[in-house]
Automatic annotation (TrEMBL):
Assigned keywords, A-Z: Disulfide bond, Membrane, Metal-binding, Sodium, Symport, Transmembrane, Transmembrane helix, Transport
Gene Ontology CC terms: neuron projection; plasma membrane
Annotated positions binding Na(+): 25, 27, 32, 305, 337, 402, 405-406
Record membrane topology: Multi-pass membrane protein
Cross-referenced Pfam families: SNF
Recorded superkingdom: Eukaryota
Name the UniProt record assigns to this protein: Transporter
Length: 608
């Protein structure tokens, strides 16, 4: 039996619109801008939308609905949500650990963006990554828009369609092409080919001050440390008061990026070469669908961009009223999220096509993913535009807004999980504010390791191991089977009906029971089989063994929570095997009493 005891009142969203805007702000982040367009181009253009949409229907949308409705059902965060299947509480602990790691390193991207934004505020368009006359530039610096009067051996070899060039090839090429306006041209030397753009040197030497590797942490980048502190203060101010305050903040942080994306799209489509970029972005290459990597990229992109498995969606859903139609709202957010990814691709590749045209290169040569797109490709692409500083301010403001709401919503997921588990924090005067402040301060101090001269290597290590890849897939697999196999899919459908008034489509039942766990586990196994140690090709850098060991510590620190807690709770729970299985996998809890009509929370306590 279950008895109800009063606990401190728990906040709720002021309206369902607060919930939707918060989910949009959280789920739509930098992954939509810096990862999806490049993956789409790299994996068959428009053809990539096929595996992407299939992944969305089989995995992304089912898990998004599951997490938000789970939070609404129990009105509790990522740890308390497992009261309906206590043996899987390790999944909630793993999510909290993963969110903690993510909060430490993800926010450093915003400090990089703030650095670029600060350097964009100037009266003229002479942004500091335009020229080679700064103290951080090297003798190899040369603008990518200044054509070097030579052709490389690779270009000549491609012309003759040979792998090895001979002296006769070079003579014949010179006779045909080094005439007229190109009479003074030569074959490129090693020095000609080793030039570095001022954009790259600004990023490497001025922003990162990058060192030789993880073994050389170097000194603190004080400007980045200041901007990191500033962004942490902003995030704290967005959430310290609770969801009623956060629900108002997201109206600005979630909607403003769309205004800026639209402005950038209008400008991008009017640039010469925009059509070339969009052609490379969308032109379908259906032969790519035969490659397993394309399908794995589609699945991981859906998981990455939807923000699944970190407890944030559960936390956002937990502040809904019990009878809110979370089902339709979650589907709406899914479509907005994926639509934004496609829309952002038009913006990014219109500028990349323009950049390729102005530099007389192919789109393949200038297209980049990840930080390279935000801090190398785009800053380079706008150099030839009038009012460069204006377009730079617009873009990096968008990056900051996209990142800030994803960051503070992830923080909210972590804090909600902890505070709901220890409600005495909320009961004390200013208890939440003080607790949030302490965790933010600790996270900032830990994050200082990412703003040293070797900080970029630390960032990449966290990004590869801590909160993505196999660790996330492992967590999502157990999260899904906790509902479909432990709680029971039929019982879950009854819970859904009690909230929204009708049964969801039978399609979701198929996904939650079979499709989604199978895809998560299959991609997890594929990733481990194909595992290759982290390497940064841009700097030709291989991590030392101790770096990989630390990376695996980051992964296992969350992954081992799931079996570890299951074993622990099974050992300490009294009773026979069948009694333990009943108590830990499918306890008798009256969920319908979780929220009464008067809006007060009821804590369900099992009478063991």
């Amino acid at each position: 039996m279950v008895e109800a005891t009063q606990v401190a009142a728990r906040e709720q969203w002021s309206s369902w619109a607060d919930f939707i805007m918060s989910c949009i702000g959280y789920a739509i982040g930098l992954g939509n801008v810096w990862r999806f367009p490049y993956l789409c181009y790299q994996n068959g253009g428009g053809a990539f939308l096929i595996p992407y949409c299939i992944s969305l229907v089989f995995c992304g949308a089912p898990l998004f609905i599951l997490e938000t409705s789970w939070g609404q059902l129990l009105s509790v965060g990522g740890l308390g949500m497992f009261k309906i299947c206590p043996i899987f509480k390790g999944v909630g602990i793993a999510a909290a650990v993963m969110a903690f790691w993510l909060n430490i390193y993800y926010i450093v991207v915003l400090s990089w963006a703030a650095t670029y934004l600060y350097n964009s505020f100037r009266l003229d368009d002479n942004v500091p990554w335009r020229n080679c006359d700064h103290e951080w530039n090297t003798p190899k610096c040369r603008s990518e828009y200044i054509k070097i009067p030579c052709d490389s051996n690779r270009t000549i070899a491609q012309f003759f369609n040979v792998k090895v060039l001979t002296h006769d090839h070079l003579l014949e090429y010179k006779k045909q092409f080094f005439v007229g306006d190109k009479a003074n041209w030569t074959v490129c030397t090693q020095a000609d080919l080793s030039v570095v753009s001022p954009v790259k040197e600004f990023w490497d030497h001025r922003v990162l001050g990058i060192s030789a590797g993880l073994d050389h942490p170097g000194g603190l980048r004080w400007d980045l440390a200041f901007f990191l502190l500033l962004v942490w203060i902003i995030c704290y101010l967005c959430i310290f008061k609770g969801v009623k305050w956060t629900g108002k903040v997201v109206y600005i942080t979630a909607s403003f990026p769309y205004i800026m994306l639209f402005c950038l799209l209008v400008r991008g489509l009017t640039l010469p070469g925009a059509g070339l970029g969009l052609e490379f972005y969308l032109k379908p290459d259906f032969s790519k669908l035969l490659e397993s990597k394309v399908w794995v990229d589609a699945v991981t992109q859906v998981f990455f961009s939807y923000g699944l498995g970190l407890g944030a969606l559960v936390a956002l859903g937990s502040y809904n009223k019990y009878d809110n139609n979370v089902y339709k709202q979650a589907l709406t957010v899914c479509f907005v999220n994926s639509g934004t990814s496609v829309f952002a691709g038009f913006v990014i590749f219109s500028f990349i096509g323009y950049m390729a045209t102005m530099q007389e290169k192919t789109v393949a040569e200038v297209a980049q993913a990840g930080p390279g797109l935000l801090f190398l490709a785009y800053p380079s692409g706008i150099l030839q535009l009038p009012y460069t500083q204006f377009w730079s301010i617009l873009f990096f403001l968008m990056v900051l807004f996209l990142g800030v709401d994803s960051q503070f919503c992830t923080m909210e997921g972590f804090f909600t999980a902890i505070i709901d588990e220890f409600p005495s924090i909320r009961a004390k005067k200013y208890g939440r504010e003080i607790f949030v402040g302490i965790i933010c301060a600790v996270s900032y101090l830990a994050g200082l390791s990412t703003v040293t001269e070797g900080g970029f290597y630390v960032f990449q290590l966290f990004d590869f191991y801590a909160a993505s890849g196999w660790a996330l897939l492992w967590l999502l697999f157990f999260e899904c089977i906790a509902i479909s196999w432990s709680v029971g899919i039929d019982r879950w459908y009854e819970h859904m009906k009690s909230m929204i008034g009708y049964y969801p489509s039978a399609w979701w039942k198929f996904c939650w029971v079979f499709a989604t766990p199978a895809v998560c586990f299959g991609v997890l196994c594929f990733g481990l089989i194909k595992y290759q140690p982290l390497r940064i090709d841009a700097y030709n850098y291989d991590y030392p063994l101790w770096g990989h060991i630390f990376g695996w510590f980051l992964s296992l620190s969350s992954m081992l929570c799931i079996p570890g807690y299951a074993i622990y709770i099974w050992i300490i729970t009294p009773g026979t095997f069948s009694e333990k299985a009943k108590l830990l996998c499918r306890p008798d809890i009256e969920i319908k009493g979780a929220i009464e009509d008067n809006g007060e929370n009821i804590e369900l306590v099992e009478d063991v």
